[in-house]
Structure formats: C-alpha cells, structure tokens
Amino acid sequence: MLRAVGAFCRGPGTFGRLLNNYGILPNKSNLHSASFSFRSRLWPLNVPTRNSSGGGATMRIKQTGFHNGKVYDEMHFFIMLGVVPLGLLTFLTNTFIGQAELVETPEDYEPRYWEYYKHPITRFIAKNLMFSPQQVYENHLAITKRHMDAKNLAIEDRWFQESELAKQDYRGWQFIPVNPAGVLRAHKDELLHEEMGHWFSR
Which of 8, 26, 59, 177 fits a disulfide with 30 by CB distance 3.0 to 4.6 angstroms? Predict the structure, then answer.
C-alpha cells in the first residue's frame, strides 16, 4: 500500500508535488516516520519501524573489572604470603637438613615423642604446636571421668525418686528448699560496703 502511494506521488508531477507540499501524502524518504495522516491529519496511521542494527539478538553480560582485580590482588597476596615462604622453607629444609635416620642409641636413653617422626618440619610441629600423646590421653581420661560422674549422679537421682515413690516418702524432713539469690545478693552487698563503705555515707 505504501509503495502504491509513493508511486502515485511520483507519477503526476504537479499534483504529487502539491500534495507533498501540503503534507497530505508523504514522500518515500518519509515512510519511516512513526505516523502520518490522510484528509488533513484526521485519521492517524501508525507505521511500525525497526531502528535496531542487524547484529545478534544476544546481550553479553560481563562482570566488572573491580571484582576481578580484587580477586587477583587477594590471590597474589596470599600466594606471596603463604605459598612462597612455605615452599622456600620446605626446599631449604630438605636440602640442608634432610630427614632423620635410624642410629644406635644407648640403652638408658628414652626417645621423646617427637623423635619418632622422620621429617624435621613434622618434628617441629609435633614438639611446639601439638599436644603430647600423654596430654591427649589424660584429657580423654578426664572427659571420660566427667561423663561417668554425671551418669552416676543421674542413676542415684533416679534411684532416690523411685525410693520416694515406693515408700511414699518426701524430703520435707531433710531440708526446706529456698532460693539463695537474696542471701547471695545480701552477702555481696555487705562485702561491697565493707570495702568501700568509708567512701560513701550510710
């Protein structure tokens, strides 16, 4: 339809130029406009246009350079701080000190626990940074003893409650349960007054 209108405008020269001058019919160069009208612009006509390029229909999302630079800086910092010194220390230790070897020891000599390791770095870590096997064993015994005491107390408390239920007894004749918060607070206030009483008037 638009091609027919353009051909009609180009065909009759004088009539076409007259219509174009009054803005009734558009030229070929004006067909890309968003709207034009016939009959003194009473009826608007919307023309769909495509203003994009002919490239691909995908939009690539690229992360900012700030995060990349930050990651690279952190990697460089930790590599230079940890990997390089540890690698250099390991190389020098293996080169100049070397691993331990078995030798003849006196009969009255008792080796230390870190001497059972072969590498010098492992010996240093076991001697200065780790617990000895004796300490680990004693800690395990202490934890086991604590659990055994708690279990025995729970067994005694259960036996006590079952005995009260069986004999229909109660603990009123033994003691009167009270809240010791007031007594403890009064004792604390008394100690505070004894220490700082000469600074304040009573």
Answer: 26
Cβ-based neighbours of 118, under 8 Å, separated by 6 or more: 99, 100
For residue range 65-107, list pLDDT tens digits in order: 888 899 999 999 999 999 999 999 999 999 999 898 888 888 8
How do the domains of the chain map onto residue ranges?
2-46, 77-102+109-130, 133-172
Answer yes or no: are the C-beta atoms of 49 and 34 closer than 8 Å: yes
Q: What is the mean pLDDT of the chain?
A: 77
Q: What band does 50 get if pLDDT is binned at 50, 70 and 90?
A: low
Residues in the chain: 202
What is the phi/psi pair of residue 36, to 5°? -150, 165
pLDDT number for residue 156: 92
Specify the higher pLDDT residue, 177 or 133. 133
Residue 1 predicted with pLDDT over 50: no
Rounded Cα gap, residues 25 and 47, in angstroms = 14
Residue 61 · residue 48 · CB < 8 Å = no
